[in-house]
Write a structure and sequence with these properties.
This protein is an alpha+beta fold. The chain contains three helices and four strands, in the order E-E-E-E-H-H-H. A two-stranded antiparallel ribbon has the order 1-2. A two-stranded antiparallel ribbon has the order 3-4. A hairpin with a 4-residue loop joins strand 1 and strand 2. The radius of gyration is 15 Å and the shape is elongated.
């Protein structure tokens, strides 16, 4: 797989850019989420043909929800051991619901 440490193109996101063939795509979805020591996590996007060739599966909705919760709680001063802010609690609830349906 290509090196994912660089800055992704500004259009990176679901259905816009394939990181594997380095080109635009209408079918790109996240297939890997990489934690970074500093800054937000980085998602690697792959289009349908690249996923088929490499046998990759999209990242599950529970993992996506958990990463969203972690990203929020890393910067929110109200989210900590004693409790969570309303946004943090909503993100946590979404993660727990997706675990049940996975």
């Amino acid at each position: 797989m290509p090196d994912t440490t660089g800055t992704p193109p500004p259009t990176t996101g679901p259905g816009t850019w394939c990181d594997l063939h380095q080109g635009p795509s209408g079918t790109a979805v996240p297939v890997q989420v990489t934690a970074r020591a500093s800054g937000p996590d980085h998602a690697l996007y792959a289009c349908a043909p690249c996923r088929d060739v490499r046998g990759l599966a999209p990242v599950g909705p529970a993992e996506v929800a958990y990463r969203e919760f972690l990203d929020h709680s890393a910067t929110c001063t109200s989210c900590g051991r004693p409790g969570r802010c309303a946004t943090g609690q909503a993100l946590w609830n979404t993660y727990r619901e997706r675990l049940v349906t996975a």
